[in-house]
């Protein structure tokens, strides 16, 4: 099945045509970003990418810091791939794909220094703010990773602190104090390779037929914050360079949406 799909995909790309009618191998489907979709979360966002739909929510909590970072706030990212979004997803603990999505998103945020974690320390070694991010898939029609990363970034921009009197967090009462973010704007772009073609934003059929993929998280000054390779086919240095260049260009487009 995948061999037949791959042949169809290659033939289509040879003609500069995508399965859904796009005439550009490097074109994204229609993207919409909506923030403030949850009244319970301290920050939230919804991203629709074609028919792919992802929610991201941010919860702020008081926690004991990690022992190796006693004076830093905490960041934790989790992803839940709901069975209703794709029949191949199952209920239960996070699988490999959910774990990869969460880790790549986490790495992009962490390595870009997007959140000023030291300012989230309330009492070194004892009490810090924790930024808890949940990614939930509502519908999977391809390219969940890019959609999830964009949703998380939008949700973080939307995040405010809940009321805190020094002892108790009063959830449901939001302040006007925003989460401290820098201006790096880390954006993830996944570039796919099949035969001699590079393309972005695959639908679910195209995702079944690629040779290799490279997710690149870049900041607004084109600093590479994180990379993650997928697929069984190795990439040459030249291919990696070309894919990074594509990711940087497409990152500029996506950054305008948030």
Biggest sheet statistics: 6 strands, mixed
| Proportion of residues in helical segments | 25-40%
CATH top level class name? Alpha Beta
**Overall pLDDT metric:** 95
What is the alpha-carbon Rg in Å?
19 Å
| CATH-level-4 superfamily name | GHMP Kinase, N-terminal domain
What is the fold-level CATH name, i.e. the topology?
A: Ribosomal Protein S5, domain 2
Helix-strand sequence: HEEEEHEEHEEEEHEEH
Give the count of structural domains.
1
Distance between the termini: 38 Å
Number of helices: 5
Beta strands, count: 12
Contiguous runs where pLDDT drops below 50 for at least 5 residues = none
The CATH architecture comes to 2-Layer Sandwich
Structural class: alpha+beta
DSSP strand content: 25-35%
Global shape: elongated
């Amino acid at each position: 099945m995948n061999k037949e799909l791959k042949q169809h995909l290659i033939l289509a790309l040879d003609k500069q045509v995508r399965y859904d009618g796009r005439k550009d191998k490097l074109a994204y489907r229609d993207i919409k970003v909506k923030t403030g979709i949850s009244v319970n979360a301290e920050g939230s966002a919804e991203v629709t990418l074609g028919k792919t739909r992802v929610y991201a929510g941010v919860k702020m909590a008081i926690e004991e810091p990690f022992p190796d970072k006693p004076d830093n706030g905490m960041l934790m990212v989790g992803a839940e791939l709901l069975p209703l979004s794709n029949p191949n997803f199952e209920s239960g603990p996070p699988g490999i794909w959910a774990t990869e999505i969460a880790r790549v998103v986490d790495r992009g945020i962490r390595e870009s220094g997007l959140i000023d974690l030291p300012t989230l320390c309330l009492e070194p070694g004892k009490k810090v703010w924790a930024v808890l991010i949940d990614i939930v898939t509502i519908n999977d029609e391809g390219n969940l990773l890019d959609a999830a990363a964009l949703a998380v970034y939008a949700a973080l921009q939307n995040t405010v602190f809940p009321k805190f009197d020094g002892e108790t967090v009063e959830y449901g009462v939001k302040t006007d104090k925003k989460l401290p973010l820098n201006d790096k704007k880390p954006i993830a772009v996944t570039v796919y390779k099949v035969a001699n073609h590079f393309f972005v934003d695959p639908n679910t059929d195209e995702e079944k037929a690629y040779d290799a993929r490279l997710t690149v998280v870049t900041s607004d000054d084109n600093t590479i914050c994180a990379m993650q390779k997928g697929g069984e086919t190795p990439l040459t240095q030249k291919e990696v360079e070309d894919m990074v260049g594509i990711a940087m260009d497409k990152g500029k487009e996506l950054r305008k949406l948030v």
